[in-house]
Amino acid sequence: MIADLLGRADTYEFNRLLHEHTSYSQVGVFPDFGQSSYTRCNYQDSETRFETESQRVGICIDCVKEDIESLGFPYWRRDHRYVEVCAKHNTILLRQCPICRHDIRYHRQGYGHDLLWVGCKGSYVHQCEPTKNPHEYKLTFARIFAEIGESKFAVDLESVIEHLAGQANKMALEGSISEEELMAINWRLKNSKGITDTWLKYRPDDRYSHNIIEVIAMLYGSFAALLDSLRQTDKLVRNIDDLMRVEYQDRY
Ligand SMILES: [Zn+2]
Ligand SMILES: [Zn+2]
């Protein structure tokens, strides 16, 4: 098991590893009602997670340039696999090699992971020009994705969905969103309930996360603003650290 090799075999350390280095954080932040552990299942099968995550890649040329200036070498970022723009630079993420235009996943061996370090045809990624994203909603989406991935807090999925639905209704009554927008939000919230069925092999491209993030973006603009609003209600915002200390117990 990878966690054993890295010396992080205990529950807390393993969950920290999941939270900081895999996209499981996108669902770990939304536990089920009454769930006291960070994960929704045992993690015996965890190596599959780490493996499947590496098969998708996205490159921000500005991040690569910064890495080379500050560290001397670039590294891959977890979130760039699942969003369209870099949350830090608002740069459009590359799925194709900027030099030969090949899909990065099939760029030589190892899902193209060597592209950052060895370049292509004698050129390097950091020598290419980045393209800025003109769409505000794509940047908001990427920022919320990053906020959830780094969140120190968790809130029950059921409570979040109920809270978001309440806010959407309120805004519709006030006329700040249209009936069509309200219907679209409710449809997305219904899909978000699928997060409950996620096991460790979950990936955000399974779309549940996309739905809930889009609703948070439309109603609050940031995950922090949603948390602030939840704190003003009776809905429980928990420390993610507390969940990470608890080993998963089969409840059935
Ligand atoms: Zn970047
Ligand atoms: Zn290439």
Structural commentary:
With 252 residues, this protein is mainly alpha-helical. It folds into two domains: 2-53 and 135-244, no CATH class; 61-127, no CATH class. It is built from twelve helices and two strands, in the order H-H-H-H-H-H-H-E-H-H-H-H-E-H. It has helices at residues 2-5, 11-21, 25-28, 46-53, 61-70, 115-118, 136-149, 157-174, 179-192, 208-219, 223-231, 240-244; strands spanning 153-155, 237-239. The chain has a two-stranded antiparallel ribbon. Helix 7 (136-149) packs across helix 10 (208-219), helix 8 runs antiparallel to helix 9 and helix 8 (157-174) packs across helix 10. The radius of gyration is 19 Å and the shape is globular. The two termini are 26 Å apart. The model has no long low-confidence stretch (mean pLDDT 88). It binds zinc ion (2 copies). Residues 60, 62-63, 86, 88-89, 91 line the site of one zinc ion. This is TniQ protein.
List keywords for this structure.
mainly alpha; 252 residues; TniQ protein; binds zinc ion; 2 domains; two-stranded antiparallel sheet
- Alpha-carbon distance between the two ends: 26 Å
Q: Which band does the percent of strand residues land in?
A: under 5%
Biggest sheet details: 2 strands, antiparallel
What is the CA-based Rg, rounded? 19 Å
Indicate the low-confidence ranges by residue numbers: none
Number of domains: 2
Helix vs. strand class:
mainly alpha
How many H/I helices?
Answer: 12
Protein name: TniQ protein
